[in-house]
Amino acid sequence: MLTVINSKLPMRNKAITRNFYVNHLGFQELGSADFDGYWMVQKDTIEIHFFEFITIDSVENYAGVYILVQDLKLYIKTS
Questions:
Q1: d(CA 6, CA 42)
Q2: Could you give the 3-state DSSP secondary structure of residue 73?
Q3: At CA 50, angle to CA 48 and CA 55, rounded to 5?
Q4: CATH number of the domain where residue 36 is located
């Protein structure tokens, strides 16, 4: 029986991605190792892995993941 799917998404910039997911969406960094070009986060039962893809064309790229939440207001920090 399958119980979890962990997505692996492209990122252009690790620092910008880290800032958004940790400071704005409240994810926690997963693990203590700092891999070059790879990064992982977790929140509740959601785990997302990112790989560096500096030259990705955001217009041409269609990678993505849907994360369902109970109350979207709880996950968006405006300050």
A1: 10
A2: helix
A3: 150
A4: 3.10.180.10
